[in-house]
Amino acid sequence: MKKYASILAVLVLILGFAAISYSAPAEIPSDTTAVIAKGKTQITLGGELRFRGMYGSNLAVVDDKEAKEGTGTKNGVETGNTSYYDYRVRLNLEAKVSPNTTGYVEIESNRTSDNKSENVNWGSGANGPRGVYGVGNWHDESNLYIRQAWIQYQGSGLLGVPAGVKVGKQLIKLGYGLFFDHTYYGDDAILAFVQPVKELTIAAHTIKFKEGTINYNDDATAYGILAAYAGKGWGLSADITYIDHQQYGNTLSSPSDNTPLHLWNFGLRGNYDDIAGTGLGFRADVEFQTGKVDYPTVDDTKLKGWAALAGLDYKFKSIPLTLTAEYAIGSGDKKEGSNDNKNQAFITALGPEQHYTFVYEYLTPSACNFGSSYSKLNGLCNTQYVKLGGAYDITKDLKAELYGYWLRAHKAVAINGATDASGNALTDKDLGWEVDAKVTYKIDKGLTYWVEGGYFWAGDAYKLGTGGNNRDADDAWAVRHGIQLNF
Questions:
Q1: Which CATH class is domain 304-487?
Q2: Residue in 219, 259, 256, 224 with CA at minimum distance from that of residue 240
Q3: Per the database entry, which stretches of residues form a coiled coil (predicted)?
């Protein structure tokens, strides 16, 4: 905890020294408050405070009886109903040392009960209270972690065109994030980029996912190149990413028994924001994967995943309404029980945020069948959906969104382990339907309140029971409200 207290102390000292060491005004946007450091360095402080309340029903997608018992977890999701409040704190500091050089640091809260999230559950501490009723008044329910810490330099002296490098822990996303989206917590990376012309950016990167033991070949590292062209109202981008995970499986008791994973992902995408001035926009993304899991004593597993997305957005000229139609699909593995030394499921690298639906995949087990269980937060892995809906600005400060989803697995699955009378897996592609809604109200500058929720009608892929004694899973739903201040 002392090291995080030191970070906060540094922020306070910067404010104090800046106030007494430099009095000349700087060019600061009218809606931004900045601190002026010695010389020409400009320091800008910012952050956010977020508080949310959550209630979820049957998020394990079982039946009412099992849900009400709430005896444990299924597919990594707690059975029973879920109810809690949480908070998140983020503080950031940007140091603009010169027109070419910028440093950035962002710290955020951490839930000390399990060190797994920046969202701290209310009343989750273990130490602090005294007295006859020694509950509450917690001292240790949260501490601080570093979310971002990077240096960026860009100029045109060396190559004669704008170029630069960004080094440190940073937020990274490829395209629309179907394959790779690490903008939630960030990665340790080096990014070098150049702009031969104003519209074209070419970049190369290396990302360290895991160091492992420093004297073993057990690292997990990504290498990639990308190019993006931003035209007037349209864009194209492509990238190639190679992940070299040298110790994907097994332990280091014998380094020769390591099981490396070598994965290539190829992405191509494009968008057109306002076709011929009609208000109609189009976007598309395709991803292809190849590679292998290199087992030392048995045949390798070949990786053959893929995904695609296509969407239309129509913005009305006369009213503040946007309608959306979208289709997305990610491949799944072969039928359960078969073994052909191939895994065709689309491999994703994502964060613990909502990827498309509010209930399915974000809060409930999904159809992803790359591993041995159907966990949540796997993106488009073995999932396809059709999305229809829209967003409407009721007033300048009040916005409403409503979307419906038809959900189907690419390959049939038995998410709850249902079997028929012969003991065979009772697989199905029917995942179900979902309706999501959200209302957002801007109370004041930087202050927003919202209510969001979703209702998921579970399909036959969630059937329960074995030996032919099968039953349908009950529906799942969740609602959450929150208030957030950005400054």
A1: mainly beta
A2: 224
A3: none
